[in-house]
Amino acid sequence: MKLVSVQTAKITAMMMEGKRVMTAIRKMPLAGSVAVAPLGLVGDEQANPVVHGGLSKAIYAYPSEHYAFWRKARLDAGLGLIDDTLPFGSMGENLTLQGLLESDVWVGDVLEFTNCTLRVSEPREPCFKFNAAMGFNTAAKAMAQSGFCGFYLAVDKVGTIEAGEVFALIAGPRQVSISQSFARRMRGHPS
């Protein structure tokens, strides 16, 4: 398993359905070592800390393997001619991971990096800002149907993190997987 890319963003305004909305969903890749603090990556912001951020949702991780799905979804929505690229960070994730899907991750599992330790806390739920960030109005529905949600991480041990490093997955209690938790939430039954 490998950390492919690390991203952060500052809060900026984005037009959504004719309204100006504050968001930090458009994460940009960083080079070099990035500090990891109790509330997430240093330099990263969240516009709505009630929904994103805090101790249990300090960092958002997303599998790189799902990017092919989203590129096709954007092409199917007619956006391919405008922009056929979809850089890492486009899902709003801080960490783009390779080799670790939602079906492989359980609440309480630990991702052990060289200089920090992160604990899986819950799946990400799509919000209205995701549609705008992706450029088509059924993106949140596509996330709900595909289960390609990614997951939030709490910081167990602060330190640093860097794109390109490998990490280990340490099994937690294995009571509910991210896929199971996400499916329950999408059916309206909190896990």
- Individual helix count: 4
Low-confidence stretches: none
Strand content: 25-35%
Mean pLDDT: 92
Fourth-tier CATH superfamily name:
PK beta-barrel domain-like
Q: What global shape is seen?
A: globular
Largest sheet: 8 strands, mixed
Q: What is the CATH third-level topology name?
A: M1 Pyruvate Kinase, Domain 3
Element-level helix/strand string:
EEEEEEEHEEEHHEEEH
| Largest sheet, spatial ordering of strands | 4-1-8-7-11-10-9-13
Helicity range of the residues? 10-25%
Distance between the termini: 27 Å
Tally of individual domains? 1
Question: How many beta strands in the DSSP annotation?
Answer: 13
At the first level of CATH, the class is Mainly Beta
Radius of gyration over all CA atoms, rounded: 16 Å
Present the secondary structure layout.
Blueprint: E1 2-8, E2 12-16, E3 19-23, E4 28-29, E5 34-37, E6 40-41, E7 59-63, H1 67-76, E8 95-98, E9 110-112, E10 117-123, H2 128-134, H3 139-146, E11 151-157, E12 159-161, E13 168-170, H4 178-186
Parallel strand pairs: 7-8
Antiparallel strand pairs: 1-4, 1-8, 2-3, 5-6, 5-12, 7-11, 9-10, 9-13, 10-11
Describe it.
- This protein has one domain (2-186): M1 Pyruvate Kinase, Domain 3, CATH 2.40.33.
- It is built from 4 helices and 13 strands.
- It has helices at 67-76, 128-134, 139-146, 178-186; strands at 2-8, 12-16, 19-23, 28-29, 34-37, 40-41, 59-63, 95-98, 110-112, 117-123, 151-157, 159-161, 168-170.
- The chain has an 8-stranded mixed β-sheet with strand order 4-1-8-7-11-10-9-13.
- Strand 9 (110-112) and strand 10 form a beta hairpin.
- The longest helix is centred in the middle third of the chain and has 10 residues, at 67-76.
